[in-house]
Amino acid sequence: MKRREFLRDAVRGFFIALAAFFAAVLWYIYPSRMQEKKVRYFFLMDEADLPRKGVRKVDFSYDLGERRISSRVYLAASGKGITIFSPVCTHLGCMVNWDSNRREFLCPCHGGRYAMDGTVLGGPPPRPLTELPWKVEQEKVYVGIAV
Fold it and tell me: Is the Cβ–Cβ distance between 131 and 144 less than 8 Å?
């Protein structure tokens, strides 16, 4: 075997091994990362407690298997009705806060600003705040969360 053939076979073998490694990593990661999440509805509040005007922060907890999860949502009531927003900034996942003086959602990390309807007013967020599905059943409000 000549030196040139040996180097060619060694390089080819290296890239085949590298491709096999990445295929194994993708095969391992794919099912857990790309798994479809289902929306489940959890109790949020009584229908009588829904805000009539403005924005209200609601902290709530729900059971997911053996774990107790604490979460937060924002309810925005306007002339168009009620919208429930996730408090997670669409830029890098920081938690936004409602500033009642400025009437805006503000992200403390990178200066993202959102209007009361969730649209981006400024900063780096690439898209509006995420609207969450919700429903009312038997005078109780439930919010949908993908789990």
Answer: no
- CB crowding 29-49: b at 16 or more within 10 Å, else e: eeeeeeeeeeeeebebbeeee
CA dist., res. 99 & res. 97, Å (int): 6
Q: Return the sign of the alpha-carbon dihedral for residues 66, 36, 141, 115.
A: positive
Site of tokens 């900034």: 89
In the prediction, which pLDDT does 6 show? Answer: 87
d(CA 70, CA 116): 24
Mean pLDDT, the chain, whole residue set: 87
Q: What angle do CA 90, 128, 88 make, to 5 degrees?
A: 35
Q: What is the pTM of this model?
A: 0.71
Cα 11 to Cα 1, 16, 23, 67, 117: the distances in Å are 15, 9, 18, 50, 57
pLDDT digits (tens, 9 = 90+) for 9-38: 888 999 999 999 988 887 777 665 556 778
Beta bridge partners of 77: 54, 82
